[in-house]
Structures are given as structure tokens and as C-alpha cells.
Amino acid sequence: MLSISAASAIWFAPFVIPICLYVCFTDMRELRITNQANLALFVIFVAVGLIALPFDAYLWRYTHFAAVLVAGIALNAGGVMGAGDAKFAAAAAPLVHVGDLRFLMALFAVTLLAAFLSHRIAKWSGLQRLAPEWKSWSSGKRFPMGLALGGTLALYLILGIFYGS
């Protein structure tokens, strides 16, 4: 059972999942996660969080945003991750219950592996001809991390609906 409440996952999912899909798509097509997507994700938390969460939990979730943003800036400065990835992670952080952090890391690891393998298989098979202009096909070793980040958040909320407290 997850720590996120099923009710809050139900509130967030219809608004957040389309943004997650958009992030997956744009990162594969352009190798960038747009600021508009990150801002929309954060605005959804600000607006829907007031309804979906108890007020004290809602306020504490802003610390998740700050902590992940600081870590993301440091990782971006070290060349470990892109700026869009760091901003997406920070905007997504308030949507995650801190009690689910270990589960989320495992889910991210599995999603990252599946996304990487799927992307590489599509890249080296004939599937890439369906969208030949996508930058992620010809980016060398670079990988569209938004595919894994967006997928992880969407899966977390879906699992929260079914297995949330």
C-alpha cells in the first residue's frame, strides 16, 4: 500500500497525466522539456493541492519542491542532468508523498530501464521511420530523460489510485 491517498491521486491524475505524456513526447521529439510544461505541473499542484491534500500537508509539500530544485540545480551544474529534467523533477516533487520515496526510486529505476531499452530498440529498428525528424534518434549517447521522468510520475499516480492509503 502506498502512502499517497487514493483520493489525492484521483484528484491529481487527470490533470497531471496529460502533462506527463506531453513531456515524454516533446523530450523525444526535441530533447527538451518545456518551461510551460514544468510551470503547468507546478500550477496544478498549487491549485488542485488545496483540494486534494490536508492544508498542513499541502504547505509541507513546498519543501519537497525546494529540496528537489536545489538538488536538480546542483546536478545540472555538474552536467549530470539537463535543466528541463531538473525543473520537471522539482515541479513533480510536491505531488509525491514523502512516505513513498523509496518506492518512487524503485519505480523510477524500472521505468528508466524500460524507457531506455524501448527508446534504443525503436531507434535501431524501423520504428524510428515513423517520426524521422525526432532529435532523440540522432543524439548520440544522449537520452530523453523526460520519457522516464514523465512515465514514472504518471505510473505513480495511477498506482496511487489503486493502491493508495
From TrEMBL:
<feature type="transmembrane region" description="Helical">
    <location>
        <begin position="103"/>
        <end position="122"/>
    </location>
</feature>
<dbReference type="Pfam" id="PF01478">
    <property type="entry name" value="Peptidase_A24"/>
</dbReference>
<dbReference type="InterPro" id="IPR000045">
    <property type="entry name" value="Prepilin_IV_endopep_pep"/>
</dbReference>
<dbReference type="GO" id="GO:0004190">
    <property type="term" value="F:aspartic-type endopeptidase activity"/>
</dbReference>
<feature type="transmembrane region" description="Helical">
    <location>
        <begin position="143"/>
        <end position="163"/>
    </location>
</feature>
<keyword id="KW-0812">Transmembrane</keyword>
<keyword id="KW-0378">Hydrolase</keyword>
<feature type="domain" description="Prepilin type IV endopeptidase peptidase">
    <location>
        <begin position="16"/>
        <end position="117"/>
    </location>
</feature>
<feature type="transmembrane region" description="Helical">
    <location>
        <begin position="37"/>
        <end position="55"/>
    </location>
</feature>
<keyword id="KW-0472">Membrane</keyword>
<feature type="transmembrane region" description="Helical">
    <location>
        <begin position="6"/>
        <end position="25"/>
    </location>
</feature>
<protein>
    <submittedName>
        <fullName>Prepilin peptidase CpaA</fullName>
        <ecNumber>3.4.23.43</ecNumber>
    </submittedName>
</protein>
<dbReference type="GO" id="GO:0016020">
    <property type="term" value="C:membrane"/>
</dbReference>
<keyword id="KW-1133">Transmembrane helix</keyword>
